[in-house]
Amino acid sequence: MASHRRPKQPSRARVTVLTTAAAAAVVLSANAANAAPSEKLSKDEVKAKVDKLYEEAEQATEKLDGAKDKQQKLQKEISTIQDNVARGQEDLNKLRDGLGSMATAQYRTGGIDPSVQLFLSSDPDDYLDKASTLDQLSGQQVEALKKIQDKQRELAQERAEATEKLKDLSATRTELAKQKSAVQSKLADAQKILNTLTAKEKAALDAEQAQAASRASSRVDLGNTGSASGRAAAAFSAAQSVIGTPYVYGASGPSSFDCSGLTSWAYAQAGVTIPRTSEAQANAGTRIYSQSDLKVGDLVIFYGDYHHVGLYAGGGQVLHAPHTGASVRYEAIGDMTFEFGVRI
Asked: How crowded is residue 89: how many other Cβ atoms within 10 Å of its Cβ?
């Protein structure tokens, strides 16, 4: 006998889910139909985007350089403190041995002074502060105990200082990794955009940059080199000797440079030590706010956060390490945001 049951109806919840999914599918389908195809960026648009990413990468690079510099200084300071602690511990052991010898001598001549015996079995700080204890010790013993006490305090202070610097070093290493990751990310994004160019477009972009560098070089006025100090002129001459050397973030020569790596290296060749980062170099000498007052070899600081630096080359040009993918070259100061010069 045939069944006359009514077909089971879907639940209200299931109907709602199916209806929502269907509606979403319609919306997505409509959006897909109406969406414009992805437009290819022009060569100039690619350059603008890539230049922006390079600038952001350089900001991170200068922070990276600062973290590296700080890490190196902290490591040296920690090493010095640890050496001092080791030597101090040796001195402390000798002082204790000396006091032990006194106790031994006393024992051989009739017994150990109770105060000395107490010291040899506990911390002298506990009883040196008690006047009654000092009254029971000889002048020589008092002097020996005070030296031990002073040395213990000195070592405690140095150990505490080392502990704080080790914490700072750990934080600096974390910052180092963070900035390195930021640089690499920006450079990877820039490369992806560059890869959208055809071979012909890439060649045209390279040619434009080469022509710009050539024009900048032709405008360099080396006639005023003599007006610069001997050291500034020597630093500029050193930088000229590495024109064409590639930019590599975090590098300070002589086979590759970043912006502040070039300037610090150039001045080092002239026998002058300046800070490693562009931000620190901005405070390394006398600021020159008028471009007309700049002399060859002066540092030139760019952008509000001082994340780029070069050497003034005369004729409104700067000699610098621009960014990844480029090499040490001349460029017009006006191509970047000039802040001020710095005379070392």
From this structure: 13
114 contacts 153 by C-beta, under 8 angstroms: no
CA distance 244 to 254: 12
CA dihedral 181, 187, 192, 194 (to 10 degrees): 180
Interval 266-279: pLDDT, tens = 999 999 999 999 99
Instruction: Check 4, 259, 307, 323 and give the catalytic one.
Output: 259
Of 4, 307, 308, 323, which is the active-site residue? 308
Can 259 be counted among the known catalytic residues? yes
3-state secondary structure of 17: helix
Enclosing H/E stretch for 310: strand 308-314
Phi, psi of 335 (to 5 degrees): -75, -10
Cα gap 11→342, rounded to integer Å? 78
| Among the listed residues 6, 155, 14, 136, the one whose alpha carbon sits nearest the alpha carbon of residue 82 | 155
- Distance separating alpha carbons of residues 290 and 312, to the nearest angstrom: 12
323 is catalytic: no
Nearest Cα neighbor of 233 from 281, 183, 297 is 297
| Type of residue at 80 | T
Question: How far is Cα 130 from Cα 300, in angstroms, rounded to an integer?
Answer: 64
For 162-219, what is each residue's pLDDT tens digit?
A: 899 899 999 999 998 999 999 999 999 999 999 998 999 989 888 888 888 888 888 8
Q: What DSSP string describes 144-186? A: HHHHHHHHHHHHHHHHHHHHHHHHHHHHHHHHHHHHHHHHHHH
Assign 276 to helix, strand or coil: coil
Per annotation, catalytic residue among 4, 307, 320, 323: 320
In the residue annotation, 308 being an active-site residue is answered as yes
